[in-house]
Amino acid sequence: MNELTFYECDICKNLVYLVNDGKGKLVCCNQPMTKLEAGSEDASHEKHVPALTRDGNVLDVVVGSVEHPMIPQHYIMWIATVQGDHVQFAHLTPNDEPKASFNISPGDVRVYAHCNLHGLWTAEA
User: Fold this and answer.
1) 69 located within any domain
2) For residue 89, with 0-12 CB atoms within 10 Å meaning exposed, 13-18 middle and 19 or more buried, which class applies?
3) Tens digits of per-residue pLDDT, 71-104?
4) Is the distance from CB of 26 to CB of 7 less than 8 angstroms?
5) Count of domains observed in the chain
6) In this structure, are residues 78 and 91 in contact, taking their beta carbons and an 8 Å threshold?
7) Domain membership flag for residue 17
């Protein structure tokens, strides 16, 4: 399981990821939630795709090859890693830099970043 499935409420912007993929529909504010697709928003890839640097068991993530802005109107809300059944999140604020470090194990790791304006982005190492 190196991938997560995210859903967002179009009304209140609640965001969830699936732990188990059941048969029911996710509903929030009395309407079905929208499944998010990574990189589907019309936005600059160089500011949104996570850039990854791996050094042993440490994975450093910077969002964007050109660092993403971090202002209240436009910022990276969180960065997450998925490796097997291990999921880690770093929650960010507009006062933070768009980066995080994670302890990881050997093997493939998928990284997600979520922009408050341009949605979900991903990369793999």
Assistant:
1) yes
2) middle
3) 999 999 999 999 998 999 999 999 999 999 999 9
4) yes
5) 1
6) yes
7) no
